[in-house]
């Protein structure tokens, strides 16, 4: 069975956050440890670590998608989950963003570690999921989002980037990492989301 991982990059106006999730397989559950670094432009870097237990259903098939089917699946599933939220418009596929994502995916060493590109776009990473399952795993963090306190949380950064209102374009790339790790997926977003102070305006409630 493939090991499933996910990671996200978070951009703020005044501070830069990164968070990487690593998961260790324990039967049907995954122990997820988040190591979060907070870099202030006028202060030192501080690091905090927390551990949560989550249950993940893997949906990793044995075949690699074609380029056209990968694009269609990635875009359609992004838009399917965005459609669940009030006034959240569909994303357009950007070949420019997709080329950036694919270029980064092509350089991945299939080591099992997830590291962000730190480029100009927002970014979600996944390892061990097929295309739709990767997007769904990112979106599933919606169940952890605190609607009464709409701020960044390391537990929900993938979700908030996917539904971010000001994001209008997405482009994704992938790499086949074999039978153990499965598919490595990179999705990048323009304009990037997860800006501090803008969550209430950009993460819209679910349609009731």
From TrEMBL:
Q: Where in the cell is it found?
A: Secreted
Q: What is this protein called?
A: Cell wall protein PRY3
| Organism encoding this protein | Cyberlindnera fabianii
Q: Which family does it belong to?
A: Belongs to the CRISP family.
**Keyword line:** Lipid transport, Secreted, Signal, Transport
> Biological process (GO) annotations?
fatty acid transport; sterol transport
Q: What GO cellular component entries does it have? A: extracellular region
Every copy of the SCP domain together lies at 69-197
| Keyword check for Secreted | yes
The UniProt entry, under PROSITE patterns, shows: CRISP_1
Gene3D superfamilies, sorted: CAP
- Keyword Signal assigned: yes
Q: Which CDD domains match?
A: CAP_PRY1-like
